[in-house]
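User: Quick sanity check before I run a bigger batch. Here is a single chain. Can you write out its predicted 3D structure?
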Amino acid sequence: MDTQIAGLAIAEDRPQRQALRVLSVIPGEEEGPTMIFAKRQAASLVEAGVVGQTFYLTSRTAPGALLRERRRLSHVVREFQPDLIHAHFGTMTGFFCAYGTRVPLVITYRGSDLNPTPSNPRLRSWCGHALSHLAARRAKGIICVSAELRDRLKWGRNCARVIPTGVDTSCFFPRDRDATRAELGWPTDARIVLFNAGRSPKVKRLDLATAAVEVARKHIGEIRFEVLDGYVRADRIPLMMNAADCLVFTSDWEGAPTVIQEALACNLPIVSVPVGDVPERLEGVTPSRLVARDADALGEALADILTSRPRSNGWTAAQQLSLSALREHVMDVYRMCLDSHGQSNL
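Assistant: Done. Predicted structure follows.
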């Protein structure tokens, strides 16, 4: 028989199953590039044998909408009967899963759910972080995409695992620069710098990146500055990374930025400030530059790379960050979560 707990049906006598059933909860819409890295990770786990289903939490602020989303989650849990839920973000997403169900929970913290977010109103930022910490108290498993992010946890820090999200190397891999430029309609002789502003240009420091490009122009002349604004189609980004000459990265706060992993996989040289796990990712990658958070230093590093326009050896470094290489570490967290819940069936 089924027992009703907080409005959710949890099967007590269902037969033992070999395949792990995981309900992934991802903030945002199913369509579009938002949280594409989490969508790819969930799909990678299904490829590894997990029976997966995804719940997209489309509203995270309106109380009425959240109540409707909770009822929808209740229905999905009753129908799918997951062994565990994996919330792919903190803030309201993690809190919603932690206190809306008794199914064992894994939370992945990715950056702005624990890091400062100066682009958001102060109260909203504080509330989001508070929800992240409260959710961690109920989680059976915690993943942080960087050690720096793990150190921000108030609860669960000692048992949290550091696992980067990973890069889809079936999409991101080295291609011919001239061929990708032709596909994009970019000139073959231009010096092109790529920058990911996302939907938080203040946090990503578009102002600093722009200033750095201006410094580089004074040294070597015209530079084309291409800015990813968070709305670029996902299938265009690998083309842009192979077509560009360098990625500049200037964020104030990060966890384990996926754009760095993707650039590595495309052999795109990187000029970055030391933030998140970027210093670790750039070890042994040439050419790459890790410089101070200063427009002059960044601009000089850009000018140096753009003068000869080489490709990097990032593809080699990216292999340890591939989705296939990292998913077994995620599976280990799932097993630990179920073992602690007395529900190991793997």
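The CA atoms of residues 142 and 212 lie 37 Å apart.

User: Great, the batch can go ahead then.
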